[in-house]
Protein: GntR family transcriptional regulator
Amino acid sequence: MENELDFSGRTQLYFQLYDILYKDIRDGVYKPGQLLPTENTLIEQYHISRITVRKALDLLMNDGLIAKRRGYGTFVQNRKVEQTLTRVQHFANEMEKRGYVSSVTMLANEVVYASKAVAGELHIGEGDELVRVERLRYADGVPMCIENSYLIRARCPDVQRHDFSKQSLRKFLEERYDIVWKRARQKIYAVAATGRTANYLGIKEGDPLIYIERVSYTRDDEPAEYLQTWYRGDSYYLTAELQA
Structure:
């Protein structure tokens, strides 16, 4: 019967249990954030050893499907989203392609002054005016990343007056100012979540994040956006196609 183990020896028991739990996670029997049955429960349910249970759970953990938290138990991870490194990604489009419903909360839309580091990246003067647009992005209602976009105010002065939880910043720049991104250069870091970031993303302070700094260039090959993005480490992975 389905969800029963075959003790004939044709397939190792831990791999059979892995298959059962994998299917249950995939089919939504166990949802993201939900606890799996305890080791003792699985031992009693399937009449197997603790070593067999742990081997099956280790396989699921290696796949990034589950995680263990001391004092809490073993729980299902959020589905991870692939982020490719070979082209400029637009969050809403990528989420829709993968079957998610994307949404946005505006955290800030304000005039700030360029630091030395940001000014250097954008080829402007230190202290020049920028507009900082900070957004919290969701997929299926789950907070996935925080984006901090710095734009040169002189090139797009009306940005500050708009709510980009209701409209696309990228489309607004294209339609209002003919600013279209041609290419981008980015740096990738592993960082720990600060208290503020953790609070917005629904994770614990100190949890791992993928942090990306990106400079986007217009069709005239001029740098016009400095973007910082903090991705949840339990929800994203990066891929790149390499040639020998």
Observations:
- The chain is about 25% helix and 35% strand.
- The CA atoms of residues 90 and 170 lie 8 Å apart.
- The beta strands are 66-69, 73-76, 81-84, 102-113, 129-139, 142-152, 181-192, 208-218, 223-232, 236-239.
- The two ends are 47 Å apart (CA to CA).
